[in-house]
Model the fold of this input.
Amino acid sequence: MITRRQFLVSATAGMAYAPLTSACAKKDEEPWDRAAYRKPPQSRVLIARAPDYTVDLADIVAHAVGQFGLAIAGKRVVLKPNLVEFDPDGVINTHPVLIGATVDAFRRLGARTVLIAEGPGHRRDNEYLLTASGLWDALRARDVEYVDLNFDDTRAVPTGSRFTRLGRLMLPQTVLTADLVVSMPKLKTHHFAGVTLALKNLFGVIPGAVYGWPKNVLHWAGVTESIVDIQATIPVPQFAIVDGIVGMEGNGPIHGQAKRAGVLLFGDDLVATDATAARLMNIEPSRVRYLAMADRFLGNVALERITHLGESLEALQQNFSVIERLDHLKASARSTAS
Done:
């Protein structure tokens, strides 16, 4: 086990690379373990209308979680928001009002413990991010524990798939001991991956003390490949809550423009949730490389294999702009609202 004090990146970054095992030796063998296969025959994603952050978000979240039949009573729930960089306009990060409302909702549903955990990839000073973003006030008002995953104790877990050559991931004990991990991304485009949603948000569970800033080892191994390997490796049940009340378009995940979408998305298949979120942005998910890879064994991307609950996809769909070199991701065959 690596402690919080053993965080010299120069010493540990090399540890992150392990030789590929013989499990991938045969050319006709799929690059994932049988135990990592979790693609269901059919997935559900709930689309909820939320025009702004003043509505009763706790009620919306509690109702949505109940629709999926999740057993929350007595469970230890870890909420993993997207806390990347300070933005005075509140566009980059998961909104603190939604995070606080989600704490309230899971407590209402009987969770034994609800805590917030994040390992920001850009800023090492978590205290600055927490206070500047407004999240600290939301947590203090609810007496909620916050864990900096960049410096959490870790345990080596063999990767469930081999799209990178990492071989294993050092995962935080806070994540490994959870009964449920809730990925809470912002609805955003991404200048490299195309979109950054529930799956990409899990980059934040990878400790910077081991993998560097901004998770350099993952970037060297391949962003797209790392997204898939992380999802295939985390052994804890997961749920997604996407903050699309105000999202980001253009040069995301940091330098884009605010895009008001007025929507929250919920799902227990993170691949299907991301695919639905992409479609809401008028982006064809099958053209997003990490989603096409994940569709093979981690969840559903095909529209016919996703049942939409709540609002209709078409009613809330908008056209999110992307940078020019990603124009091929746009679902231009169908006219959408601007």
Notes: The chain has a mean pLDDT of 91.
